[in-house]
Amino acid sequence: MAGGPKDYKAITSSVNDGIGGLRDHGDEVLKAFGGLSKAAMTDGALDKKTKELIALAIGVAKQCDACIGFHTQALRKLGASDEEVSEMLGVSVYMGGGPSLMYAADTWTAWQQTGD
């Protein structure tokens, strides 16, 4: 990749800055989204780690760099293993083909960056 790997810490920091700016002009939407996030990610029949693996797989499929950054950070905090992330990426590639393989590679880079 020209210019080296993406810096997922910088990507998530930049998005957080942008969200902070949006908060000044659309706080109700952000509050609603935060509530949706909290409700969707609360332990239930599926635990939070499983839900984060699903969210990361969708981030790969949708080719969303910030989603990849945020969900790899969350999975690291939840104690996900290399094997869990690797298997999830395998399913993402299976379902999404070549484009998902490219983002699976980026996701592995993000995963490794969260371990630093």
Automatic annotation (TrEMBL):
Leader sequence residues: none
The record's Pfam families line, in alphabetical order, gives: CMD
Domain Carboxymuconolactone decarboxylase-like residue range list? 28-106
Molecular-function GO terms, alphabetical? peroxiredoxin activity
Q: Which PANTHER family match?
A: ALKYL HYDROPEROXIDE REDUCTASE AHPD, BLR3452 PROTEIN
Q: Which NCBIfam families match?
A: ahpD_dom (TIGR00778)
Please state what the protein is called.
Carboxymuconolactone decarboxylase family protein
Specify the taxonomic lineage: Bacteria, Pseudomonadati, Pseudomonadota, Alphaproteobacteria, Hyphomonadales
